[in-house]
Design goal:
2 copies of one chain form a homodimer. Chain A is α+β, with helices and mostly antiparallel strands and 265 residues long. Chain A folds into 2 domains: 146 residues, PSTPO5379-like, CATH 3.40.1640.10; 109 residues, PSTPO5379-like domain (PSTPO5379-like fold, 2-Layer Sandwich), CATH 3.30.2040. Helices cover 20% and strands 26% of the residues of chain A. In chain A, the strands form 2 sheets. In chain A, strands 1, 2, 3, 4, 5, 10 and 11 form a 7-stranded antiparallel β-sheet that branches. In chain A, strands 6-7-9-8 form a 4-stranded antiparallel β-sheet, covered by helices on one side. The longest helix of chain A has 13 residues. The interface between A and B is medium-sized, with 12 and 12 residues.
C-alpha cells in the first residue's frame, strides 16, 4: 500500500483506487470507517433469477444492497464510478461449486452475461454495537468471527438451497436487549439476532468448534447471541454449483460510498 | 355474500373460501381486521426476473411480501393452503399493457409458466395511523385514496420503468412527525412518507386532480403527506406491456394469514 494515510481515514473511492492499482491487497476490517462494506457475488445471468429469489426469500442472511444489470460492472447507487471487477482487494473464483483459487482482479473472467450482487456485511452493525458500548469479543481478540452452519433450512429458490449460517458474539446478559435493538436498526445488514442462548436449539453441537472463523470464549454472565450470516449464500452457491461464480475473499470486502448511517432501517 | 358474520371479524381463510366459492365479490377495505392484505401481480416467467429486480430496486413503492415458484398458485408463507387463482375477490387481466377486462377467477389463464408476486398494501399502515390517533381523510369520506403520478423516476430494471406513483393523506402539521414514525415502522408496506408539503417539488401540478382515486380536501393547518404507492408497479407493467399480466382489481385485495403486527420492521 503506497498511501501513508491510515486506512481507517481513507475515503472509499481512494481505497478502491488503490485496489484497482494493485496497491491494496489486505482485509478491509477497519478500513474507511463509517462506510458500508459489502459482500460480493457474481453469477452468470442464467442463475441470477434463482439467486435474487433466494435473497428475497431469505432477507436476514442475504440482505441485498444492489444488483447490477448483466454486463455492467458498476453499482451506480452504492459506488458510482467504481468497477466491481477490480476494486475489491481479493476475489474467489468457483467452478461447479468448487473453489478454483483467489485473484486480484477478475476482468479476464468477466463477460456481458455476468450479474453482480452486493449484500450487506456485519461490519456495519459491529460498529453500531461498539458505539452502543457493547464489546465485540472477536474484535478484541483480533480474530475472525465464529460462524456455524445450523440445522435451520433456508427457504429454497430454484437451484439455491442450504441451511442458515450464523455468526456468534457473546454478550453480557444485561446487554442482550440493547444488542437486539441496536442491530435491529440495520435490517439491510442482517438486522436483529435470529437466536439467543442454547446453541443446540438451532442445531449447533459444538460451540467451541465453529464451521468458519475462529472460536471465542463465552464468559460467565454472557449469552451466545446468533445473527444470520453472509456466509449463508456461499453455502447455497456451493450446493447450486454453477459453472462459474465469483465472490470477494472472506474479509476482503467491497467498500461502498454509502455511510453506515444511511442504511439504518 | 352468504355469511352473516361481519367481514371485519372474518378469518382470512374464511374470506378466501367465500371468494373461491364465488360468494364474496366486494372490495376488501375493512375485511379481516388486523390481517395483512396484499397487491397481486402475476406474470409469465420470462418477465419475472426483470420484475423482481424492479421491486428490489424500488422497495418503497414495490415492497415484496412473497414470490411463488412458477406454476405454484399457493403463497405458502403468507397464506398456506390458499389458491391465488381463485381466492382474490376480483382480478384484472392485461394483454400487451392494455386492460382486457375483470374476472372472478383466472384459472383458465393460468399455466405452469406463471409467477405470482404479493406486494404490501397501505391498508396495513392506515390501521396503524388510526391506532395512533391520526385521522385518515379518505376513510372518513368513504372514498378511494388520491394518487398521483410524480416526475420522480423509478430505477428501471429490464423492460420495467416508469415514474413513482404516490398516495396522499392530509395530516395536521403537529401530527406529521408521528405519521412519519408510525408508518416508518412498516417498511414492507411502503414505510415512511417520501415527501411532505409542496406537491410541485415532486412534479404534481394539480393536487385537486389526482391521477387515480378521488380528491380530498387539505384543510387549514394540514400538510399533504405523500407515500410511495402500490400503483407504481402497475404503471411500470403498462410500460413493459407483457403479452399477459394479471393483477387484483383495485381495492379487491388478496387477504393473507399474516397479522399486520408481524410485518412491522
Amino acid at each position: 500500500m503506497m498511501s501513508s494515510e491510515p486506512i481507517a481515514q481513507l475515503a472509499p473511492g481512494a481505497l478502491r483506487a488503490l485496489c484497482r492499482a494493485g496497491e491494496y491487497r489486505s482485509p478491509t476490517a477497519g478500513a474507511c470507517l463509517g462506510y458500508t462494506q459489502a459482500n460480493l457475488v457474481m453469477l452468470p445471468k442464467a442463475y441470477a433469477y434463482d439467486f435474487l429469489l433466494f435473497c428475497q426469500r431469505n432477507p436476514k442472511p442475504c440482505p441485498l444492497l444492489e444488483v447490477t444489470d448483466a454486463g455492467d460492472p458498476c453499482p451506480a447507487r452504492f459506488a458510482p464510478g467504481s468497477d466491481l471487477r477490480k476494486d475489491t482487494p481479493r476475489y474467489r473464483v468457483f467452478s461447479n461449486g468448487q473453489l478454483q483459487g483467489e485473484k486480484d482482479d477478475i476482468c479476464e473472467l468477466w463477460s456481458d452475461d455476468m450479474v453482480s450482487f452486493l449484500l450487506g456485511c456485519s461490519f456495519t452493525f459491529e460498529s453500531a454495537l461498539l458505539a452502543a458500548g457493547i464489546a465485540v469479543r472477536h474484535l478484541e481478540q483480533g480474530t475472525n468471527v465464529p460462524m456455524y452452519e445450523t440445522q435451520v433450512p433456508c427457504a429454497p429458490a430454484g437451484v439455491f438451497r442450504g441451511n442458515l449460517v450464523v455468526s456468534m458474539r457473546p454478550v453480557p446478559a444485561q446487554q442482550v436487549p440493547a444488542a437486539v435493538l441496536v442491530t435491529g436498526r440495520y435490517p439491510r445488514v442482517h438486522g436483529a439476532p435470529v437466536h439467543v442462548g442454547d446453541p443446540a436449539r438451532i442445531g449447533i453441537e459444538h460451540i467451541d468448534r465453529p464451521d468458519f472463523g475462529e472460536a471465542v470464549a463465552i464468559q460467565a454472565g454472557e449469552l451466545p447471541v446468533f445473527w444470520a450470516c453472509g456466509v449463508t449464500p456461499q453455502v447455497a452457491l456451493a450446493n447450486a454449483a454453477p459453472e462459474l461464480a465469483i465472490t470477494h475473499a472472506p474479509g476482503y470486502m467491497f467498500v461502498t460510498d454509502v455511510p453506515d448511517t444511511d442504511i439504518a432501517g
